[in-house]
């Protein structure tokens, strides 16, 4: 990747509703063209309704933006930070327009997603590609993306303090043998898991595990990244070696006929309790960057209720949020991208799966839309929106 003198940072996120009237329009934005059944929308709407129609995600992103600005300033890096979402105001296209109007031309995007799959990586690249087409800024604005940072020390370490505290609490209460750590992440369709990341690596994982995506954790890039980070975290906490753990999934949607990654967290909890005599659950929201609706509803409400029904103890540990090490890690990765190639520090990555690619490989997380088209993207070797490098 050529070094660029980036002149703006774009914090790109999912977006969420800010009041009851926003809930349905937001859900329509999220699911446009993707065949999520109406009953599922109604069901998901109740999660937002129960919180006044407000997702906490926007406020969390305002705080992350402020924290990034403060850390950049503290290091003397003069880069303005803008914020744009996929599904709610401020939308990515209007933010890119603003960035351009303000005179900037080279944008480095930081997304609120750590792992590799369509929803968390390529869909952001499409957001940028489509926005550049829509605004007519294709030849004016370069939009690159910070790498997926699942195993960057800043992201990993942000999970540690509350994981250690949760483990200590549960071990004190029921003993290590009866404690289980559930590393929870968003389920995705098996087909998305199969397409995640570079194709050669996906093929290698299928070979190594002798399984197809969805048949076993670790058989696809998405679950393999999560497994690697979960294993690392358990090795980093003192109590880790005494306690059993597993990778589980949440927030499945789409028609039941389409297979998604399993096991679901509630099924997994029930199984551990009935088969292994587990009496305490430490739930780590490993796939998420902040305490948004997927965390406060699917874990703090639903999974907690399951634990109550099963009669076991439950603790949910922290997301990175604006944890100091997380923010500082993001700025480390930004400054790497600003450095000239020969002055670039060693890129940090704590597992065999990383450090991830600064620029996505060919066909990374590929997705053909239902109408047979492929959306324009940026930030990949095969991106079709590639403004001149020599800016
Ligand atoms: C991998 C992944 C992440 C983690 C990485 C990342 O963080 O990016 C994530 C995060 C999030 N998902 C979120 C919300 C939703 N996700 C949905 C639907 C879907 N997610 C998917 C995947 C992911 N999603 C997929 C494959 C679908 C179905 C197809 C589709 O429609 O793309 C739906 C539709 C209704 C439903 O079916 O649940 C909603 C409302 C919010 C906002 C929460 C808030 O408002 O606080 C956040 C941060
Ligand atoms: Fe990707």
Automatic annotation (TrEMBL):
**EC number, as in UniProt:** 4.99.1.9
Annotated residues that bind Fe(2+) are located at 186, 294
Catalysed transformations (reactions) = Fe-coproporphyrin III + 2 H(+) = coproporphyrin III + Fe(2+)
Q: Which domain of life is it from?
A: Bacteria
- Which SUPFAM superfamilies does the entry link to? Chelatase
Q: Which Pfam families match?
A: Ferrochelatase
List positions binding Fe-coproporphyrin III.
55, 124
Tell me the function of this protein: Involved in coproporphyrin-dependent heme b biosynthesis. Catalyzes the insertion of ferrous iron into coproporphyrin III to form Fe-coproporphyrin III.
Q: Which PANTHER family match?
A: FERROCHELATASE (PTHR11108), FERROCHELATASE, MITOCHONDRIAL (PTHR11108:SF1)
Family, per entry: Belongs to the ferrochelatase family.
Specify the protein name: Coproporphyrin III ferrochelatase
């Amino acid at each position: 990747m050529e070094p660029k003198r980036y002149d703006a940072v774009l914090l790109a996120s999912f977006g969420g509703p800010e009041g009851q009237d926003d809930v349905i329009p937001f859900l329509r934005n999220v699911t446009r063209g993707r065949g999520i059944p109406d009953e599922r929308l109604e069901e998901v709407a109740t999660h937002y309704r129960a919180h006044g129609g407000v997702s906490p995600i926007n406020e969390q992103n305002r705080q992350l933006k402020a924290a990034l600005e403060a850390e950049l300033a503290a290091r003397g890096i003069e880069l303005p930070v803008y914020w744009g979402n996929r599904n709610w105001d401020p939308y990515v296209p209007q933010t890119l327009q603003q960035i351009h109007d303000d005179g900037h031309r080279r944008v480095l995007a930081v997304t609120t997603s750590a792992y590799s799959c369509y929803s968390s990586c390529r869909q952001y690249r499409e957001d940028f590609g489509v926005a550049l087409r829509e605004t007519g800024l294709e030849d004016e604005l370069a939009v690159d993306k910070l790498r997926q940072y699942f195993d960057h020390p800043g992201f990993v370490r942000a999970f540690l303090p509350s994981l250690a505290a949760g483990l200590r609490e549960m071990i004190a209460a029921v003993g290590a043998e009866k404690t289980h750590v559930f590393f929870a992440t968003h389920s995705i369709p098996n087909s998305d898991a199969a397409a995640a990341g570079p194709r050669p690596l996906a093929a290698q994982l299928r070979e190594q595990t002798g399984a197809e995506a969805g048949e076993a954790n670790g058989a696809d890039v998405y679950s393999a990244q999560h497994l690697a980070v979960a294993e690392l975290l358990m090795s980093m906490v003192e109590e880790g070696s005494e306690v059993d753990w597993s990778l589980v999934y949440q927030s499945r949607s789409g028609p039941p006929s389409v297979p998604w990654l399993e096991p679901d967290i509630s099924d997994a909890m029930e199984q551990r309790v009935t088969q292994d005599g587990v009496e305490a659950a430490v739930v780590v929201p490993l796939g998420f960057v902040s305490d948004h609706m997927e965390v406060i509803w699917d874990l703090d409400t639903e999974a907690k209720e399951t634990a109550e029904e099963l009669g076991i103890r439950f603790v949910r540990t922290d997301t990175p949020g604006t944890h100091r090490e997380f923010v500082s890690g993001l700025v480390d990765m930004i400054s790497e991208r600003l450095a000239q190639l020969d002055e670039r520090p060693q890129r940090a990555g704590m597992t065999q799966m990383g450090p991830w690619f600064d620029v996505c490989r060919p066909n990374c997380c590929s997705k053909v839309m239902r109408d047979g088209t492929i959306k324009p993207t940026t930030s990949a070797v095969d991106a079709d929106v590639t403004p001149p490098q020599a800016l």
